[in-house]
Amino acid sequence: MGNLATPFGLGRTVTPVPAAKPNGRILVVEDDPAVQKALRRLFETEGYSVETQSDGKSAIDSFHASPPAAMVLDLRLPKVSGGDVCKEIKAISPTLPIVVLSAASDVSDKVLLLELGADDYVTKPFSPRELLARVRAALRHTTRVPEAQVVSFDDITADFKKMEVKRDGKAVVLTAQEFKTFQFLVHNAERVISRDELLNEVWGYQNYPSTRTVDNHILKLRQKLEKDPSSPVHFRTVHGMGYKFVR
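^ that's the sequence the OP posted. Answer follows.
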């Protein structure tokens, strides 16, 4: 990959700056118009705004003009390589999430990119759900705030560290997936969570059940934790969107 002796890097004073606050904008750096279009559609469908650039120099110029929340970066780019783009941007903003997307599958390339600061690596041809899950994971890793280990609402108390849930002081038995679903919803309280996101985060992007499985788990949580499961107060359905936990 070489060092960063490129026209856009020479003579520039590298001054560390804080990463951009999560604003939902993804910078996609990809020289294939068809892949650009597919990635734009993927992220916009999930509520992100998307900017696309087709070469490494334009990507760095865009970053300096307005840092994105995260970057999806092709490895093989015209003008400036993806590796050099990653190296320069990480030198300036170490916490900016960068997920590399490339046809290159050599393990040494992956290791080198991670050493340069890339947060993750997805190989073409790629699964859109896998890429989306990895970008979300990178965003969470860099923006995560401490999550409450003990929460209470109504007559329910949950200790996530001990993996205990009680109702009126009596233990409530949840399956492993019910507990994971419950914990993810609680830690994302007041935010609408799509079925696909729950599948990504609770079941994992490599092993998908049907979205009906999510509905069944929410039903079980309502039966076990709501005072009136037929009129849920905490585990709410947002029609056409997904679910939301409200204390």
